[in-house]
Design a protein that fits this description.
Layout lengths: L1 E2 L10 E8 L17 E10 L2 E15 L7 E6 L5 E5 L28 E5 L16 E2 L12 E2 L2 E4 L6 E4 L9 E5 L5 E7 L10 E2 L2 E2 L20 E4 L7 E6 L14 E5 L4 E7 L5 E7 L9 E7 L2 E8 L5 E5 L10 E4 L13 E5 L12 E5 L8 E3 L3 E5 L6 E8 L9 E5 L7 E9 L8 H4 L3 E2 L4 E9 L8 E10 L3 E9 L2 E5 L15 E9 L5 E10 L1 E9 L4 E4 L2 E4 L5 E5 L3 E5 L3 E3 L2 E8 L7 E5 L5 E9 L3
Parallel strand pairs: 8-9, 32-38, 39-47
Antiparallel strand pairs: 1-2, 2-3, 3-4, 5-6, 6-7, 7-10, 11-12, 12-13, 13-16, 14-15, 17-18, 18-19, 19-20, 21-22, 22-23, 24-25, 25-28, 26-27, 26-29, 29-30, 31-33, 33-36, 34-35, 34-37, 37-38, 39-42, 40-41, 40-43, 43-46, 44-45, 45-47
């Protein structure tokens, strides 16, 4: 969401939303040919006071496909030129063929589609002067998300992006735009691009400065064939694997000079923030700015007013979602936690009303003595002042309280308040996943009837659950979340729902080399929340059903293209695949040792060089025969 730059001027109280629009009552089927799939949309709404009027919606761009339910992109900002910029992902899988995903998805290279692009429009939805594609071979794509093959979409500002999840514009560059796009990579690299009008930033031919192995050598990814290489890239070998939030440090902050002209960005997987600062001879130097933010953080960031300057505000998905602030100060930074430390008089298993608080995690740059002001019930009245970082408090009644702490150092500097919710006398509810079954037809007494612990791609599954509350209260509600874990270090939400059950489909792997069940699996989570807001989560893991597929060629040692990867058969290969996963396999014409070889047939009788293999339950072998061409 963003706000009209002239908000507050009569007739310009607009907010702009980029959202996924459900086109039918049916759930998405992840079939690009289906008219039931949701689409992405950019709309403008009138806002009065704190109310956004839904009926005032003016759709500016519509029908941007979401064929796989991910890589929607999803950011929008106004530039200093007064125009609206929008980033759009490649849709996860191709909008034309559902089996072409990840490295095989080339939607970002289709100039007649809005997928994998950065768009630029006027605040009213028009085409700004200076957009790069307004020649006779171009057309508007704002209604259908596309135009005729071979034509350019006039909304396109730049292309060649995989998942441009967030971008930022430098607020201090007047009469121009300094636009950095954080483009989430595939299996290898994350990149940040300095985007210019008409630029091509490489995907799906390139990932960062490296070739897509599926199309190796087709473009010089580290040379002049593209608009430019990324201003910064980093390898997944660092443990950071998903570049997300980003923001330029504005000039009017009270931050130290070392942050002047700096760009801050975050990584969703390793839970860190980094700074990019210009180097004297060109390029940028990267440093760690903040760590310990945990997985799924940060997802968005921006600078905003704080006291006499500005602070960095960032959003995280952790702990149910939070907005947090980072400011520069010479004062202390308060941090504390709380635990219950006694039991009720009548029942030793019942939690009591006494809580212990510990602020030993508080930091202060001056090293002077600290004073701790405790407000145990959040009523903005100081209940106790201590010189030590610990305190105890006994509450009068069971309940939910927002305990608050302020810390003062020896120079009189006072910290921002730190808050922790406590629940004296309360115990969390106990959720239980009662059943987890496969809905497809199975014989009586089968694994599906008894409950499953493994899934197949495309299988239909159902879960039911319940909860009890030791305090006797009925839980406020049950909330489900189904996530797909990827390589053991980050996750994507597949489904979420409230109530006693939900249904979901078995997902496909995120790539040819993301099939190891040890780090790639589905987790079904159930959270119960009691009447005070205290919650507890339980989970069940579903591992993929896997099988081994062996590939070869005759003569031996030629190359095959498997799921977007160019693979040599000189040492096999045997790959681990998920049962039900559709693998695109292609036997290309190729040269080896000065000789040219062309496809003849497959060992199972298939006569097409390109084919889709639906992974079977049992291990299988596929050999492609080639014939040598005479020249």
């Amino acid at each position: 969401m963003t706000v009209d730059p002239r908000f507050g001027t009569e007739g310009r109280n607009f907010v702009y939303l980029y959202y996924t629009h459900q086109t039918s009552d049916a759930c998405p089927v992840k079939d690009p040919a289906s008219n039931k799939n949701p689409v992405n949309r950019v709309s403008r709404f009138v806002m009065e006071g704190n109310v956004v009027h839904r009926a005032s919606e003016k759709v500016l761009i519509d029908n941007m496909p979401s064929p796989n339910g991910n890589h929607n992109g999803g950011d929008l900002h106004f530039g200093n030129d007064g125009n609206l910029y929008v980033s759009v992902g490649d849709g996860g899988c191709d909008y034309f063929e559902k089996t072409r995903c990840q490295y095989e998805n080339d939607a970002s290279r289709d100039k007649n589609m809005l997928l994998g692009k950065v768009l630029r429009i006027t605040p009213d939805g028009g085409i700004p002067a200076g957009n790069p594609y307004t020649d006779p071979d171009s057309a508007r794509c704002n209604l259908n998300g596309r135009t005729a093959t071979g034509n350019h979409c006039q909304e396109t500002y730049a292309s060649g992006f995989r998942n441009p999840f967030r971008f930022a514009l430098d607020p201090d560059v007047e009469d121009a735009n300094k636009l950095f796009v954080n483009d989430v990579g595939g299996q290898r690299w994350e990149e940040i691009d300095n985007v210019k009008a008409g630029g091509d930033y490489g995907w799906s031919i390139c990932e960062g400065r490296a070739d897509n192995p599926y199309k190796a050598g087709s473009t010089n990814c580290d040379g002049a064939q593209l608009a430019a290489g990324p201003v910064h890239q980093y390898s997944h070998k660092t443990g950071c694997e998903s570049v997300t939030a980003g923001a330029f440090v504005p000039d009017d902050t009270n931050w130290p000079a070392r942050y002047r002209d700096a760009y801050l960005f975050g990584d969703f997987v390793c839970g860190k923030m980094f700074s990019l600062t210009p180097k004297g001879g060109g390029g940028f130097k990267s440093r760690t700015f903040a760590g310990g933010l945990r997985l799924r953080s940060p997802v968005a960031m921006d600078f905003g007013p704080y006291k006499n300057g500005q602070a960095l505000y960032y959003a995280t998905f952790e702990d149910g979602g939070m907005i947090r602030r980072i400011s520069f100060t010479n004062g202390p930074s308060a941090e504390f936690g709380a635990v219950g430390n006694d039991h009720g008089d009548d029942d030793p298993d019942t939690p009591g009303l006494q809580m212990s608080f510990d602020a030993s995690g508080t930091t202060d740059p001056t090293g002077t003595p600290l004073t701790y002001e405790w407000d145990f019930d959040g009523d903005e009245t100081v209940d106790r002042i201590t010189d030590a970082p610990t305190a105890e408090h006994t509450y009068d009644t069971r309940g939910r309280y927002a305990a608050t702490l302020r810390v003062t150092n020896g120079e009189g500097n006072v910290s921002d308040p730190a808050r922790v919710e406590v629940f004296p006398g309360d115990e969390p509810p106990e959720p239980t996943i009662d059943s987890l079954t496969e809905a497809s037809a199975q014989p009586a007494g089968s694994q599906a009837e008894a409950g499953v612990d493994a899934f197949r791609v495309g299988g239909d599954y159902a879960a039911t659950g319940s909860a009890t509350d030791p305090d006797g209260d009925v839980p406020v509600g049950l909330m489900w979340e189904v996530v797909q874990r990827h390589d053991g270090n980050h996750e994507h939400t597949l489904e979420s729902a409230a109530g006693e059950g939900l249904a979901f489909s078995g997902p496909k792997p995120e790539g040819l080399y993301s099939t190891d069940p040890g780090g790639n699996y589905v987790e079904v989570r159930l959270t119960a929340t009691d009447s005070l807001g205290l919650s507890k989560t339980v989970f069940r893991r579903l591992t993929p059903r896997t099988t081994e597929l062996a590939f070869g060629t005759e003569p031996a040692g030629l190359r095959l293209e498997i799921a977007g990867e160019s693979v040599s058969t000189s040492r096999g290969p045997t790959i681990t695949s998920w049962v039900g996963y559709d693998l695109n396999v292609f036997a290309p014409r190729q040269r080896r040792d000065g000789r040219t070889y062309a496809f003849r047939s497959w060992s199972d009788g298939e006569t097409a060089a390109g084919r889709v293999i639906t992974t079977p339950e049992q291990p299988s072998e596929y050999t492609s025969s080639f014939r040598r061409l005479r020249r």
